[in-house]
Design goal:
Blueprint lengths: L13 H5 L3 H4 L24 E9 L3 E10 L2 E10 L10 E5 L1 H14 L16 E9 L2 E8 L3 H14 L10
Antiparallel strand pairs: 1-2, 1-5, 2-3, 3-4, 5-6
Helix pairs in contact: 3-4
């Protein structure tokens, strides 16, 4: 979906307008980790030519965010984990350089999942499990895939984000 001005709710697809997920609606407010410091992907257009974000929200294991970006000829990874406990301890955002090989692994996983052609939402829901949101932006082209406890290529794509982020993310079993 092209979203050149990336602003008001009228500029997003019907799926995004009707979503209750704050990462799809982008109408402001607080994101899933309870902080206001993770803006929508379009806010990075000036510095990141291409960006992908994986948001995982589990019924039992917590929540996590992995953001991977291309900055000219370099690549960067940002991640945050919210541990599911009585305290819901939020880890700080961790940032690290990403190698060209890791970037290529992500690009291969995006291709294998057919990410850019997947429907935004498959309307599957449940009480226990996990919600996965994968967003991508190349220039002004934006796409999001929102799934509840997916199998197959979407799950594998999410696992690729966690593998790139390393520990403790790489130990998380997606369900």
């Amino acid at each position: 979906m092209k979203n050149p001005i990336c602003g008001p709710l009228e500029d997003v697809s019907p799926d995004q307008r009707s979503s209750t997920d704050p990462y799809l609606c982008y109408s402001g407010g607080t994101n899933f980790l309870g902080v206001d410091d993770v803006p929508p992907l379009c806010h990075y257009r000036e510095t990141e030519s291409e960006a992908y974000r994986f948001v995982w929200q589990s019924s039992f294991s917590g929540a996590a965010l992995v953001h991977v970006a291309r900055l000219d000829d370099s690549f960067r990874l940002y991640c945050r984990f919210l541990r599911h406990s009585r305290l819901y301890l939020e880890e700080p955002i961790v940032s690290s350089a990403l190698s060209l090989d890791d970037w290529r692994k992500l690009q291969l996983a995006l291709t294998m999942s057919d990410f850019w052609s997947l429907a935004t939402n498959d309307r599957r829901m449940g009480f226990d499990g996990a919600n996965l949101l994968i967003e991508g932006r190349r220039g002004v082209t934006y796409h999001a895939v929102d799934r509840w406890s997916p199998q197959g290529a979407v799950r594998d794509l999410g696992q690729t984000f966690f593998a790139l982020a390393g520990s403790p993310f790489s130990e998380i079993e997606l369900y």
